[in-house]
Every structure is written in structure tokens, then in C-alpha cells.
């Protein structure tokens, strides 16, 4: 019987249609079908955090301030980062929270100014070195693999004051020194490094807090960040790899720009251009040909000429630099939360929440022309106007990167998460069914990327461990598997219901038929694809007084109530139907 099912499955797989670099996910029934199965052995399941968002202890020991400490201490802001979730003191608890969630990995970032208070290696803060040594040792003692980010946006404030930040190419060497120090000090135990977290976000969206509507500084910043990344990778490759045997990657954020009409060449081109600006800006020099995407170079030039600027603000790499940049990653971390539908347009786009702009028309990619961003029906609003429910985004982006760049090295989903805006409600609602739905659907798409699309995906990191400081907006958007009480001096953490579910997915390495949460997933699946499942994430949502919404599916029965044979049969038939629909739909 099993052989019969497999034959049909394999035949179905042959009917698969793709749109080249754009995976054809237009058939919604097929796209949203549940898939059972497990991720490859050794798959890393973890959470991701960032130093500024959790550590606190902002001036403890001899730590120097970062640009975020500077920003959060401006009179109009609240310095939430001073204590954050107090992980500087509670790192052991952070590790135990991973243990209790059955996770085998933890992605955290090192704070550059905690190690080098003024950004340079002239003074080293031994308290900072001790802190990260303790954290790494604690992880190791608990069998948890660290994946360490060197730069999650907290530039030493002194480097900003002295050099203007990333706009100055002196920072390339400073970063190399800092990376070298980290490899030397922690590399005996850390085997997975990423240089930068989401360069697009801290360059395009933040820009080191510079006022640069013209983007002249931002293009320079990006240029130096790419050079710094390449420098750090080569440093590891030349001086550490043979002794430490680890790998160095970069985390690039992107959402999947899905062409509105896959058969319309103009929409496909618009979606390609969108991806080239958003993702390719940083990826093309590293996994493409060492240089910026051609389309980006052309569009920046053309758009500036229209403004009578004869010199393009996009810097140029020398031929030597292109060779040096190319291939400087051992793996790619992809942070992805959502998607957009992209169509070609001749009309000028305006930036407005109703227009669903993420990356275009709001000044973030000012030289990208002819692109309109929208969302589709069934894309539900999740906590913030930029995040819309679109789990298939995972398949779309991984497939795109592989096909567009001929990329064959491993991927890690380095951040995937959902936030809600009502965290100050008291008592907190720990029954976060929307987050359970989110992880069921998004993790299932990760499984599909591996099983259906053959992507070499090796890890999944939930954003985030506990509710933390969401950068400029403080702790008002809560992404945690654990609730953090920000009014409590010791930042008490309490598991939410999603923590148990995510732990179960991790423990079972996905969705094997006999897992308890798979039985539950089948019951919840339809509801998890409905708008009301995500309603509680929204601002202004009023919690029902009895805390239970009537349409919410019943809690999962224990697996033992489902007769094994019947369950297997059900799964087999459902799997075949899902596979047939998924692969053979027009
Ligand atoms: C960043 C995180 C941030 C999250 C949610 C990601 O882009 O890496 O630091 O908290 O988005 O906004």
C-alpha cells in the first residue's frame, strides 16, 4: 500500500510546474495544503534575539553606548533598552527557556560596544568578554548550538561620533578587528557566525540615524557594509577556518515579491526588479557576481539623470573588489515575515498604509521605478501594517534565491515571527492561538520548501524568545514565545501557549504523522487560514471577557484517541490528495 502511495506521489511530483525563478503558488488550495513529514536530521530549531533588544545592562561593566542607547536616551524617547529583558543578568534563564522548549540552537547577537567600548580594540571590556563566554558555555553545557550574529544594528556610538558611522570606510577595518577578536575569543565553541543582520533594514530604513532622503549616504553605507562583510569572511577563511572548522554567513532580509500575473512579462520583470533592489542589493555582490545587480545600477543612474544628477550615488566596486566579494558566504540566513504582490505600473506610487508599501514608494528604495506593491485576499493583518500573513513567502523566497543566483549552499530561516500590539493589557493573554497558527503554518511551509522544492534548509529560528524591546517603539509589539513583564523589576518571563507548540514542532523535527501536534494541526488548519485567527494581534482588539473565542478550535485530543491504522490511512490519503493538488494544478 505504501508503495502505491509513493508511486502516485512521485508521479504527481513530475507534474510540478514552476515559473522559473518565481515559484507558481497561485493555486491557493494547493498552496495552503498541509504536508506531514520531518525536516532533515540535524535540523536546528531555535529562537533568535538581538543584544540591544534583550540584554539591558546598557552601561554595566565598562560597556560603551551604542547608537541605540544614544537614541533611546533622547528626551522624547523612553530608554527601554537600559534594562530590556535583563538578559545581561538572566542569561542562564534564557538558556533554560530554550531547554524547556526542546530547542537545539540559539541565535543571539554580540554587542560590539560591550566588547570594545569605543568601537576599537584599544580597550577591551573584560566584563563583556566574560558575559559572552558564560552564555556560550551555558549553551554548550545544555547541548544548544550557538549561532552568533556579530552586528545586529548596535553600532558603537563613538564610531558614529568620530567617523559618522558606516558611511565612512574606516569602519571596514574596525569591523574586521572586532570580528577577528570574536573569532579568536569565542570561535573554539561557536561554529556558526553571521556577520550582519539585515543590512537592508539598518541601511535603507534606519541609515545610522542620518537625515539622508537623497540616499547618497545610504548607498555609501551599504557599500562599506558589504566590504566589511567580505573582509570578515576572508579573515575567518584565511586565519580561523582550518583550526576552528566553523562557517560564516550573512543574514539578509527579504519578503517575497510575487508577480501579480506570472504569465505577464511586465509583472515578472517588475517583481524581479523589486527583488534585485531589496535582496539583490546585498546578495548579488556576495552570491551573484561580486557586484550590484545590473538593473539596480541602470535604474539608479536613470532616476538620478531625471533629477539632473549626472553622477550616480551608487558607488562602484573595483574589479579586484568584485572578485574579493564574490562567494563570501558559507550559508545564507534569511529573515522573512511576509510577502507582497508586485505588478508593473507607469504611475507614480504614493506611500500610504492602505497601499501596503513595504519597500517601495516610502523613500526606502527611491530609485526603484515602475513597481506597485499590494497584498492579496486572505493575507491577514498581523500586529503591524507591514506584516501580513503569507506563510508561502518562505517557499517563494528560498526558491527565488536558489534559481536566481544558482545558489547551492545551505539556508537557515534566521527569523520568522509574529507580533501583537496589545502587550500592556493586564493580565497578559498567554493563550496566543494566533502565534500557534503562525508557527504551524510557517513551519509547515519550511517543510514544504525542503520536501517539495528540494531546498537545502538547515534551521528555523523563531523571532523571538521573549517579548522584548522592539527598537524605537519599545516593548509595544510583542513577538515572544514567552511573555515578559516589563513592569516587573526582574522582567519576569512566563511561557505562552505557543511556546509549548513550538517546542513540540522542534522536538518532533517537524510534522511526523504520529506527533500530537499534527493531530491538532489538522483540526486547526482551516481556522489558521482565516482572518479571525489573527484578530487578537491588532491594535484596538478587545479581549472577550471569558478569554475564549467561540470559533476557536477545540484543544487537541491526545494522539492515543486516534486509532493508529485509521490515522495512518487518513494521513496517506490526505497526503496524496495534497500532493496531487499541489503539483498538478494549472
Ligand atoms: C529584526 C528584529 C526585529 C524584528 C521585528 C527583524 O527585522 O531583525 O530585530 O525585532 O524584525 O520587527
Please give a structural write-up:
The strands form 5 sheets. The protein has an 8-stranded parallel barrel with strand order 2-3-4-5-6-8-13-14, surrounded by 5 helices. Strands 7-9-10 form a 3-stranded mixed sheet. It has a two-stranded antiparallel ribbon with strand order 1-17. The chain is α/β, with parallel strands linked by helices. The longest helix is centred in the middle third of the chain and has 24 residues, at 216-239. It has 20 helices and 17 strands. A hairpin with a 1-residue loop joins strand 11 (381-382) and strand 12. The site of beta-D-glucopyranose has 10 residues, from loops. Residues 50, 53, 197-198, 201, 253, 335, 415, 463, 470 line the site of beta-D-glucopyranose.
Which SSEs are present, and which pair or pack?
Blueprint: H1 2-14, H2 28-31, E1 37-38, E2 44-48, H3 51-54, H4 67-72, H5 87-100, E3 105-109, H6 112-115, H7 126-141, E4 145-151, H8 157-163, H9 170-186, E5 192-197, H10 199-206, H11 216-239, H12 241-244, E6 247-253, E7 256-259, H13 265-288, H14 294-306, H15 319-325, E8 332-335, E9 339-344, E10 371-374, E11 381-382, E12 384-388, H16 393-405, E13 411-416, H17 433-451, E14 457-462, E15 482-484, E16 493-495, H18 497-507, E17 510-511, H19 516-528, H20 564-584
Parallel strand pairs: 2-3, 2-14, 3-4, 4-5, 5-6, 6-8, 7-9, 8-13, 13-14
Antiparallel strand pairs: 1-17, 9-10, 11-12, 15-16
Helix pairs in contact: 1-20, 5-7, 9-11, 10-11, 16-17, 17-18, 17-19
Bound molecules: beta-D-glucopyranose.
Keywords: Glycosidase, Hydrolase, Signal
Family: Belongs to the glycosyl hydrolase 1 family.
Signal peptide: 1-20
Amino acid at each position: 500500500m505504501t508503495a502505491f502511495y509513493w508511486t502516485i506521489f512521485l508521479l504527481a511530483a513530475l507534474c510540478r510546474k514552476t515559473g522559473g525563478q518565481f515559484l507558481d503558488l497561485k493555486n491557493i488550495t494547493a498552496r495552503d495544503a498541509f504536508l506531514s513529514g520531518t525536516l532533515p536530521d540535524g535540523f536546528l530549531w531555535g529562537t533568535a534575539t538581538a543584544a540591544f533588544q534583550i540584554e539591558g545592562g546598557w552601561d554595566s561593566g565598562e560597556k560603551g553606548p551604542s547608537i541605540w542607547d544614544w537614541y533611546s536616551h533622547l528626551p522624547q524617547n523612553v530608554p527601554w533598552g537600559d534594562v530590556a529583558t535583563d538578559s545581561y543578568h538572566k542569561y542562564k534563564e534564557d538558556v533554560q527557556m530554550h531547554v524547556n522548549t526542546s530547542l537545539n540552537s540559539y541565535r543571539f547577537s554580540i554587542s560590539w560596544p560591550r566588547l570594545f567600548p569605543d568601537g576599537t580594540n584599544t580597550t577591551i571590556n573584560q566584563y563583556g568578554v566574560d558575559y559572552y563566554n558564560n552564555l556560550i558555555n551555558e549553551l554548550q553545557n545544555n547541548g544548544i548550538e550557538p549561532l552568533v550574529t556579530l552586528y545586529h544594528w548596535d553600532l558603537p556610538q563613538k564610531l558614529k561620533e568620530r567617523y559618522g558611522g558606516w558611511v565612512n570606510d574606516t569602519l571596514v577595518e574596525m569591523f574586521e578587528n572586532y570580528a577577528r577578536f570574536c573569532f579568536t575569543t569565542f570561535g573554539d565553541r561557536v561554529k556558526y557566525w553571521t556577520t550582519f543582520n539585515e543590512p537592508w533594514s539598518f541601511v535603507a530604513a534606519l541609515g545610522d540615524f542620518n537625515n539622508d532622503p537623497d540616499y547618497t549616504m545610504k548607498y555609501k553605507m551599504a557599500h562599506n557594509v558589504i566590504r566589511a562583510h567580505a573582509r570578515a569572511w576572508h579573515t575567518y577563511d584565511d586565519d580561523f577556518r582550518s583550526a576552528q572548522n566553523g562557517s560564516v554567513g550573512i543574514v539578509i532580509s527579504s519578503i517575497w515579491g510575487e508577480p501579480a500575473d506570472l504569465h505577464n512579462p511586465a509583472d515578472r520583470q517588475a517583481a524581479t526588479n523589486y527583488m534585485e533592489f531589496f535582496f539583490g542589493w546585498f546578495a548579488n555582490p556576495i552570491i551573484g557576481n561580486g557586484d550590484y545587480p545590473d538593473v539596480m545600477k541602470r535604474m539608479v543612474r536613470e532616476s538620478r539623470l531625471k533629477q539632473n544628477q549626472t553622477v550616480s550615488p551608487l558607488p562602484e566596486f573595483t574589479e579586484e573588489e568584485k572578485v574579493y566579494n564574490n562567494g563570501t558566504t558559507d550559508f545564507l540566513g534569511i529573515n522573512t515575515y511576509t510577502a507582497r504582490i508586485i505588478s508593473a505600473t507607469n504611475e507614480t506610487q504614493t506611500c500610504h498604509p492602505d497601499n501596503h508599501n513595504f519597500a517601495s514608494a516610502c523613500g526606502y528604495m527611491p530609485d526603484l521605478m515602475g513597481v506597485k506593491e499590494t497584498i492579496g485576499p486572505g493575507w491577514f493583518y498581523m500586529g503591524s501594517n507591514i506584516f501580513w500573513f503569507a506563510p508561502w513567502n518562505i517557499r517563494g523566497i528560498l526558491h527565488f534565491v536558489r534559481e536566481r543566483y544558482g545558489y547551492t549552499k545551505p539556508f537557515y530561516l534566521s527569523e520568522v515571527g509574529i507580533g501583537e500590539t496589545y502587550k500592556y493589557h493586564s493580565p497578559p493573554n498567554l493563550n496566543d492561538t494566533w502565534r500557534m497558527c503562525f508557527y504551524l503554518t510557517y513551519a509547515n511551509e519550511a517543510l514544504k520548501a525542503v520536501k517539495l522544492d528540494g531546498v537545502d534548509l538547515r534551521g528555523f529560528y523563531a523571532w523571538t524568545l521573549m517579548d522584548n524591546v522592539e527598537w524605537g517603539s519599545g516593548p509595544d509589539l510583542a513577538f515572544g514565545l514567552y511573555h515578559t513583564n516589563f513592569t516587573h523589576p526582574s522582567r519576569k518571563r512566563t511561557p505562552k501557549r505557543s511556546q509549548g507548540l513550538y517546542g513540540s514542532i522542534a522536538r518532533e523535527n517537524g510534522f511526523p504523522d504520529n506527533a500530537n501536534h499534527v493531530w491538532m494541526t489538522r483540526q486547526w488548519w482551516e481556522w489558521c487560514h482565516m482572518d479571525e485567527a489573527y484578530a487578537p494581534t491588532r491594535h484596538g482588539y478587545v479581549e472577550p471577557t471569558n478569554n475564549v473565542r467561540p470559533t476557536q478550535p477545540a484543544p487537541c485530543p491526545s494522539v492515543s484517541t486516534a486509532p493508529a491504522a485509521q490515522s495512518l490511512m487518513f494521513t496517506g490519503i490526505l497526503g496524496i490528495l495534497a500532493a496531487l493538488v499541489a503539483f498538478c494544478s494549472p
